[in-house]
Amino acid sequence: MYALREAATAFRRAPVLTGLSAAMIALSLFVIGLFGLAAHNVRQALENVESRVEVVAYLRDDAPEASIQAAQEDIARFREVSAVRFISREEAFAVARREFDELGSIFGSLEVNPLPASLEISLHQGQADASVIRGVASRIGDMPIVEEVQFGEDWVDKVYVLRRIAGLAMLTLGLGFAAVAALIIGAAIRMAVFARKDEIVIMRLVGATDAFIRRPFVIEGMITGLIGAVLAVLGTWGVFRLLSNSVMELTWIPAAWLLAGVAAGTVVGLLASMVAVRRHLGEIV
Amino acid sequence: MIRLDNVTKDYPRNAGALNGLSFELRKGEFCFLTGHSGAGKSTILKLIHMVERPTSGEVRVSGYSSTNIRSRDIALLRRKIGYVFQDFRLLQDRTAAENVAFALEVTGARQTVIRSKVGRLLSHVGLAAKAEKLPMELSGGEQQRVVIARALAHDPLVLLADEPTGNLDERATDGIFDMFRSINAAGTAILFATHNLDLVRRNPSIRLVELAHGEIIHDSAREHGADVRTS
């Protein structure tokens, strides 16, 4: 109770200082928020691309129907596979004529159908990374009825690399800004400790424990972190609305990410003030 | 209750250092501590309050020893020791009542206990009518009374007074000293460091310990009041 009241008093006594540190934390977390917003939308776009990645197995012309049927059932049982669709030679020919209208005359003059039958294999969401796709393609390619397997290998690799880069950049930026926020909170707590030097000396004099003396400062740091994080969320929301209304349609950051961000701001505030107060209380005798 | 055994305390420039000093303050005792500046009076008080630790020897206070006391126990020990300073050390932005309440708040006392106790303590030191005054609105003697009320907040076993009348005129000094006498009469031991030899001379019944260069050169409690000069 005393600690909460003192922490609130500290905000009242030095509103500029605490406001400034909350604003700096808000700014740091706001940059992370913007990056989070970008990363989330890039991730969504990539997932969209990934979900369209299919493995296509072109079948030998002489493949017996029973073998095709067996292979189709076999592939459908793969853990990674969500659907297998058989495209007959006739169906492929019809699709080609429909989709490549400008080549209609060529197709029309053909007396034989040059297109092979195929199996179109879709993968479960989240199973579309490069190594999984290569594994599935290689297992299908080993089947005797399969002539050739295609799965847009270049695309898969690029998407994979992009995801890695986005994840790594977000982690680096997050850690960097968390460190900056921690330093700012540490400096603010240091000033708060020295501003209350007389009180601390008297608290020790009359028998307050160090844990009791530390508590208001730690709560102050935690609240500063929390306020900073909430301001950062509001700022990011503002930018999101602005961009969504004028530039492009964006998806808002998932609630779990927001909660994690606010929790991270609070924890950074808590840890930074704990370290700072422990260090600077020792300097007051 | 308080015992210093062969205590040496070294300082870089030697001022206030102690040199193998032994001293005991019994329960309920009143003792003057005198000596020139730098003789070691304040050092003894700081050692008893465990602000300082001896370079060698042992300080024992109410069952705690300087050789193995933990940081948390120092806080608990200090609740048994009241400390009164020459320069008061009051929080200037808080009233007399809030300054006294502060000592209780920071040790986790409940608000109802704090309210009743603060009123009682301020009445005891004759300041009930000035409870809502800020320190700057009080005279030196009145500020010292607030400090004494704060020092009594935890019903201490002993009051350590470091030149408590150093900043006061003669009349205020007498008033404060009478207050210490009445506190002592109620059972609290008092270790009273002072330069005021007139005050000491006017109270010959009170034990007198005189320091010079970190050693006790006279202790009236020693056998037949004999001089115990060690050098």
Instruction: Assign a percent range to the helix content of chain A.
Output: over 70%
Beta strand count of chain A: 4
Subunit arrangement of the protein: heterodimer
Radius of gyration of chain B: 18 Å
Largest sheet of chain B: 6 strands, mixed
State the order of secondary-structure elements of chain A, H for helix, E for strand. HHEHEHHEHEHHHH
Rg of chain A: 31 Å
Low-confidence stretches of chain A: none
End-to-end CA span of chain B: 28 Å
Structural class from helices and strands of chain A? alpha+beta
Mean pLDDT of chain A: 82
Summed up, the helix count of chain A is: 10
Helix content of chain B: 25-40%
Largest interface: A-B, 17 and 21 residues
Largest sheet of chain A: 4 strands, antiparallel
* Percent of sequence in beta strands of chain B: 15-25%
Strand content of chain A: 5-15%
Low-pLDDT residue intervals, each spanning 5 or more residues of chain B:
226-231
Mean pLDDT across all amino acids of chain B: 90
Determine and state the CATH class of the domain at 1-80 and 200-231 in chain B: Alpha Beta
Global geometry of chain B: globular
What does this structure look like?
The complex is a heterodimer of chains A (285) and B (231). With 285 residues, chain A is α+β, with helices and mostly antiparallel strands. Chain A has two domains: 2-47 and 159-281, no CATH class; 54-151, Alpha-Beta Plaits. Chain A is built from ten helices and four strands; from the N terminus they run ααβαβααβαβαααα. Chain A has helices at 2-13, 15-51, 65-76, 89-99, 104-109, 130-141, 153-195, 197-205, 210-246, 255-281; strands at residues 54-59, 81-87, 118-123, 146-150. In chain A, strands 2-3-1-4 form a four-stranded antiparallel sheet. Chain A is elongated and about 100 Å long. The model of chain A has no long low-confidence stretch (mean pLDDT 82). Chain B has a domain at 1-80 and 200-231: Rossmann fold (3-Layer(aba) Sandwich). The radius of gyration of chain B is 18 Å and the shape is globular. In chain B, the strands form two sheets. Chain B has a six-stranded mixed sheet, with helices on both faces. Chain B has a four-stranded antiparallel sheet with strand order 2-1-4-5, with helices on one face. Chain B starts with a strand and ends in a 12-residue tail after the last strand. In chain B, α3 packs across α4 and α5 (140-151) packs parallel to α6 (170-185). Chain B has helices at 41-48, 71-78, 96-105, 111-124, 140-151, 170-185, 197-201, and strands at residues 2-9, 18-25, 30-35, 56-61, 64-65, 81-85, 158-162, 189-193, 207-212, 215-219. Chain B contains seven helices and ten strands. Residues 226-231 of chain B have low confidence and may be disordered. With 231 residues, chain B is α/β, with parallel strands linked by helices. The A-B interface holds A 2, 198-199, 201-213, 285 and B 49, 51, 71-72, 75-79, 83, 89, 91, 102-103, 105-108, 150, 153-154.
